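User: Please predict structures.

Assistant: First:
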Amino acid sequence: MYTVDSLLTGNWTDLADSLRHLVLPASVLGCYTLSLITRFSRASVLDVLGQEYVFAAVGKGCPLGPWCSATCCGPHCCRS
């Protein structure tokens, strides 16, 4: 609320101070949310890598590894 008050009254020094104090809590909340999204995405990709159509793509010659995100297996794994 202090941020909104200083913005409405035009008190720019207090606005800058309140925004500086909001950086750490916002970054902590953002990192927590990002870690959840990363964890769910990794679990989903690992689940998709075990599907039959990925095995078929690898059987047809698609390389499977960390370097293949832009080649054949990347689109096969990301479409789900």
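Second:
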Amino acid sequence: MTLQNDIYATSTTVYAGGTLFLNGSHSVTGNLAVATKWRCFVGGELLTINGNFNASAANTTLNLSINSASVFGHIAATGTAALNASSTLNLTVLSSNIPNGTTFTIISGAGGAGPGA
């Protein structure tokens, strides 16, 4: 599924084996849950979830790009953000001009973020 527009729903689920491609920065209003073997290609964009993000199923993959110190792919939830500890994170760095020591928050949740948040 390629997300080209914002989603407005109480709950959105990406089922087992599903793939989500982000085409530009978009938002999901409502909770977003993903099932096992889910893959997400955020690139250098922002996916805002106005609710909870639950990717706590096993064998999930998140693909992000870092374009610069201020432009990078990330997921921000207004609720909690849970990602399985065994998930795979693929980072593609597209710039050689990122200062040493630069930190990036790639998944955040206002209500807490981490494994099983």
